[in-house]
């Protein structure tokens, strides 16, 4: 690969890539996301490769193994371009027919397209399938359009133009200003304004500064960061480099899971390719800006994703939260200013730079801008990765996109934020997706796992599940968290087994007040949030269990 | 070193930059209870019994006095209804593990903690980490460490090192607020010398 | 696992103490467990106290201080699989192979782990054996799946 030395050379390269492409050439995009692979899409990919070879179509048809398309429920998924025909639940046996009939013959195979279970209506194109058409897929939508292992495909979609614009047309201050004006809020849980955090790190004393991608994704039921990072690693990397430029950092870290080979490989390939093109490393694009990235593989436990624990892990120390009252953006890794943002937060950066903060702030609500990735799971018809603008109501997500509750059951609640979050009852389902609105209801959006619960769910059991999760996923260092969770779990377990006693609820409330006020890190401080929110909306279930001595587990 | 003025329980207190609230309070003779703090060791912030209320720039917060650095004009309260409630609960949670520890009993009296509030699960260790940190930071021997996580976290000796180093040292023994350390050590020795 | 192999892994990371977790991960993935001797070697080469290494090795579920069975069964107990019946599934697996999560059967045939979300909620409840996913599985079908692994 030739090294690119200027903005002009980058545009020439892009032109070259585009000129070699025929927009009408059929392309079969096969999902190689975690879900579809687990369902055997690797065999579907091989079958396509063989079939294309057999019919000697190599020059006429492209095959592309992509990241998650989002509609994991119906996997293995494929999309055939340029018509954007979606086939679901594809098997290797379907492959010859797809190639002959659809790719060459341009005919839709009825049996492989989506049928709406409620209306019986069929939908062949992405733009007609309710799951897709009710979303706004600015981030995840590109997954099916690129091979994550090919930087050229990312460039073909305009990739790295935001980096080039930042480096050559904007000062670091202007980039920072744009992010602040866009009111980009952190997607990893806290919703803290990214621009303010960047500014703190930028203004912090010291020459050496770090920028970090938090790709830990420890929340159970959350898989959107993995889907985005695996399927479009360059979008995260580009955001990171732009952030580094704005902050004045020359060293970045990618902290991510070791347990997904695709994720690992795709990141490694992306870094190598970006370096070869001169988009990473010394003198990026000939601008004089230097920036390197190191990958830190980890999986740790849930608490490892907390910022100070994560930074200790990068230092090679025990990944426990640190009792410091100085922000990591001022004193983080090796006591240097360290700016940490979530995968999705970074991926938002290039589009803000390219299309401007005004465009960005036109999407969303008053105080939550842009789109949000959501992992839909639990008792829901369409499990998968969803992207919607802030302001979309929870009802729209559950019914219009998620397809409702399976087996004709009624919805009971949706739970956000996993073990640090809360549940929202059906009666409040018209609440818009919004950082502050959901927090007000006691169910902060968290990382974006939306866990749907049907009428058969016992909410005491949901609380018990999360508390039990935390006994094994916290660090155990500080007393209010470790001992508080231990006792709360005991009491909640007793209640759910019909052994609850009068006064248990009050005792639970007392423990959670102390854990919430005195714990060392945010895990302990919010560990009782699922408990408090279920007590807020479903107190009767606790009371009934205690009074009637019923075992409902 | 620059002087910092702050207020603790209504009293003006002078401190140096880099001091913690606990150190400032101690220098002024104001008592804040601690369980995991030791002056020779790096601040640890785990037991949270030293929780106090601070008010800085109009915002009130509960913080651990042993870690929180002093600031100019900081207003600190070392007792309040809420602080007492927190300390009482922390003590009750710990008394389930170490019901006979003197260090806990004295404080329990002060804060009205009921040692039978929670079902006994006598493991004797309250995870203050004094032994682990003393061995690592002061003696640099690292004979004892933590293992595991969450509610299963515990201390554990490394027999090979313990058998060489501990017999002639035992300096961490008096630091232990409960009898856990002796128990663990005796256990290790028993396992190691057949 | 001999010292030469461990040294190779350590050298790859330039023998830096900050790479401790990466080194342990690689030993675990090559050897499937962390023998005591390996930890001692790492401690010596990286100049990191054994206490700290042991804490990390027991802190992460990924690491095992005991040998693993020939086949690793992983039952997803994430939130979504939980409401879709993971508890019953786990009970069935435990009954069938007679070990609990974190354990290895005495004939070294199976190790059982539970884990959080693997990112495949659409397939839940599921069990994964040696990396192969068995999705939307009913307790009644577990025996059938496991009999192929010996
Ligand atoms: C217990 C705990 C676990 C966390 N896990 C994650 C995680 O898996 N991924 C993540 O991005 N942020 C996680 N966070 C939030 C991070 O501490 C941090 O706020 C975030 O990465 C900052 O990025 P953002 O501002 O872009 O959201 C966690 C926080 C806590 C307290
Ligand atoms: S709150 Fe929990 S997870 Fe956080 S430091 Fe304390 S024990 Fe560890
Ligand atoms: S993994 Fe294929 S659609 Fe999500
Ligand atoms: S003395 Fe401050 S937390 Fe223990």
Keywords:
heterotrimer, A: 553 residues, alpha/beta, Glutaredoxin, Rossmann fold, Ubiquitin-like (UB roll), 4 domains, 5-stranded mixed beta sheet, 21 helices, 14% strand, B: 194 residues, alpha+beta, 3 domains, two-stranded antiparallel sheet, globular, binds flavin mononucleotide, binds iron/sulfur cluster, binds FE2/S2 (inorganic) cluster
Q: Tell me the CATH topology of the largest domain in chain A.
A: Rossmann fold
CATH class category label of the largest domain in chain A = Alpha Beta
Number of helices of chain A: 21
Residue fraction in strands of chain A? 5-15%
Number of spatially distinct domains of chain A: 4
User: In whole angstroms, how far apart are the ends of chain A?
Assistant: 60 Å
Question: What is the molecular shape of chain B?
Answer: globular
CATH class of the largest domain in chain B: Alpha Beta
Rounded mean pLDDT of chain B is 91
Report the sheet with the most strands of chain B, covering strand number, pairing sense and barrel closure.
5 strands, mixed
Low-confidence stretches of chain B: none
> So what's the overall shape of chain A?
globular
Radius of gyration of chain B: 19 Å
Largest beta sheet: strand ordering of chain B: 2-1-5-3-4
> How many structural domains of chain B?
3
Query: Which CATH-level-2 architecture of the largest domain in chain B?
Result: Roll
